[in-house]
Every structure is written in C-alpha cells, then in structure tokens.
Write a structure and sequence with these properties.
The structure is a single chain. The chain contains 13 helices and 12 strands. By secondary structure, the protein is of the alpha/beta class. The protein folds into 2 domains: 327 residues, Alkaline Phosphatase, subunit A; 162 residues, no CATH class.
Amino acid sequence: MLRRRDFLGAVAAASVGSCTRKPGTNRPNILFAIGDDWSFPHASIFGDPVVNTPSFDRIAREGALFQRAYCCAPSCTPSRSTVLAGRQPWQVGEAGVLYGTIPTQYPLFTHLLEDSGYFTGFTGKGWAPGDWRAGGLTRHPNGREYNSKRHADPVRPGIDPRDYAANFEQFLSERPSAQPFCFWFGGTEPHRAYAKGAGLALGKKLDKVRLPAYWPDTPEIRSDILDYYAEVEWFDTQLGRIIATLERTRQLDNTLVIVTSDNGLPFPRAKVNLYDAGIHMPLAIRWGGGFTGGRTDDRFTSHIDFAPTILQAAGLRAPEGTAGHSLLGSTRAEFAVAALERHTYCRPGGATYPIRAIRSARFQYIRNHEPDRWPTGGPDFISSNKTTHGDVDGCPTKDFMIANRARFPKQYDQCFGKRPAEEFYDLESDPDQVRNLAEDKKYGGEVLHHEARLEAYLRSTGDPRMEGRDVWQEYPYRQTTGFGASMNTALSPEQRKVAMDAAAHKPE
C-alpha cells in the first residue's frame, strides 16, 4: 500500500509546485463537494454491497481514497465551520454550534481565495444552518449563491428540487475568462426526510443491508437504511453531472476535486455522536495534470486539513491560527480529535451536551463532560425538533426503537440512554463500539494514554473546557426565519422554551 508521505510527495511534485506561488499564475480550480449526513463506508468503492456510487468511486480511482478521514463535529454548522476556517469547533466561537454565526476574526478559505482573484460560488447547502450576517460578515461564507435552477421533472419527496449541476453550469458561464474558480457543491442529501420505500423502489434488497449491533435487525430499519442509500446515490449522480461538465469544458484536470460529507448518517447513535458512525467520513481527492491516481491513503486526516490544503494549492499561506495541516505536505497525524457542544434545543434551558473524543488506529477514547444529562435530549418533550430525544433526527428507525423499547432494551439504551463520563473502545474487536472498556484493567494503560493525549491536544489548541469554562451555553440560536429568529441571550431559559415549543422547523 502506498504510504501517505509518498502520495503527498507525488501530488506536490506533479501538481502543486511551491506553496508561495504568486496569484495570477496558472492556479488550479477548486471543486469542494460535500454531502449532508453521509457516513463512511457507505460508498461502493469501500465495499458496501448495496449502495452504488460510481462518481465518488471515479474520483477515488483517479485520485486518492482516504480510509481514515474524520469530521471535527458531527453536526451541520460546526462541521462546516471547521472546513471553512481550518480550525477546531472550540476555536471558532459561535461558529462552533448549530444555529450560530461566524465571527469576523476567523478567515475563511473561500474569502481568502476570492481576495486573491478566485471566482467563488456555491449551490445547495453552504454554511448552515445559522445567521452568518449576525457575526459581522458582509459576504456569504461560500461565495455567490447559485440556487435558482430547478429540476424540470418532478423529483421524489425528500430530494432537493434545486438542480445542482445546472446551477454549476450557470456559475461557469458567469465566470470571467481565465479566472480560476472555487465552487462549493453542498448537496442536501442524504439529510432527512426520505421518501419511504425509495430504496425498495430502486430494487435494493433488505437482506443485503449490513446493520450495526446497536440497532434491532428488523425490516423497518433495513428499509430505512435503503432509503438513506437512495439519497446517497442521488448526491453521487449530481456529482457525476458536475464532473461531466468539467470534463466537457476541459477543466477537470486543472481542478482540485474534494468529495466528502459534513457528519454521519441521520440515525440513532450516528449523527450528533462521536462514535465512528458520527465522525468517520468518506473522502476522495482528485487532481489531474500528471498526478497518477489509484492511490489509497490510510493516515489520519481531519476536516480542518481542507482549508490549508486548498490554500496551498492556490499558492496562498494558511492564516495564523489554522489548526489543520495541508495534505500536500509531509505532516503526519496519528489520531483525529472530534467535539460537540450544541446541536438542537432539546434539554431544559437549552443545555448543551459537551463531548470530546480521540480516535487512534485501534482505539477510541470519549469524554462525556456532563454524564448526568441525556445525550439525545431525553424522553421529555423539550425540543426544537418537535420530538422527544430531539438530538436524534425523526425517522422510522427512531420511531420503531422508541415504540419497541421493551423488546430491544439493550439497543434502546445504547442509542438513547445516558452515558458514563468515560468511554473506551477497541475497534479491532468491537467495530460497532458497543463494549465500553473504560473500567477494564486490561486496557488501563491505553485508557490513560489516550486520555492524556486528548487533554494535551485540547490544551494546546485552547479548548475552554480544559479550563473548566463553558462559553457555549449562552450562545443564541440564530436563524433569520423560524424559531431561531426569536432566540437570543435576552430571553430567560423559560422564555426560550416557550419560543422553541411554539415554532416549527425542519430538523437540521
């Protein structure tokens, strides 16, 4: 297997040149494609027997396929903030929570590219959900918006009506000649809601689905997974159309293409969790122009690495304070770190559920800072998602497990129950992470080693939790419409609850 340092050297030699390349030279275009709630290993090139992702597979075959790519936060807004800023979620202020904003002191790679002469734009979901203007920004985090083109033919329920590829073509038609571009393709798939039975309608088979140990093995849950796969395939199809446009316009080989997801699949114990199902991401990167593809990279990469990678490819230096490292250099990472503070409003007073985790090649250590709180929000109805256990997206799997908790008490507790302060998993023997070994003396040395490594990293990068400070609790829920418009720090916890319960919105 090709080692990461060899791949990086090949990429640098074939495509990058010096990281100090001057703006105005033949700089590459950038296509950043990001799915919404799509987990590793749900792509055919990873060996999934049900889902079919020829476009993602092509990027991987002609470029590099990453086996150990991790997001920094398993929630839409903070994850996208880390991508844009190249900083950890605790390093970006209010951009580190769902329905936050982006303070102006954190440079975004899209803005840096635009300032250096790139034509920037996006289609679909950019930085969201939240109010990016509230922090002082005067231009969109993702560039010019291209969302006016819609599909002419009816699309099944749950599929975004925006025609991503047509919007990309409009973007290209408006680009000044010879100006490099950066385009953000943010599919809203496979975010819920899904058309029930869509997977079966496509001919997918229930008996081919691989289920983790923490979900009951039932037709209802298997069918829900098939519907998720159907939306993954839709995202992949739209990616293929965009790639075809690049190829037709002879721009593919001078385009750095990055394809990934923001966080894990929208199911219990996945999204909004720091287990692998919530943070382990698909990632493929392609760059033509002499770079030989077909490479596999099994070193650790993080979403904070995208900004410095893109900036180096464009001949720009990453700004001071960037936590990630360019994938075009020789820096090696031996682990990934992820965090979560706030997803939805689902606990009394809008309380957060702070978690930190470190993932090494074999083990994962998780610290739950408030183990007395419900990680899902709990069974009481206090939720902006209009449901109990509000940090779990509404779905047939969730409904089935709640309705049948007496039949499947172990899985129910794994997905919805409270958790101890420390969790430790040996993924070599327990890939589903259901056997907590934190108190097992056999693993005592590894637990202490990973705990110390995590704490050292968090302290070195300025995590307020390491100083006993909670700066997230009073961050307002910012949204220009819906419940977020009325959520701010002037409201008491009781007033917030009333405002949240009185407003409806689609779960994010």
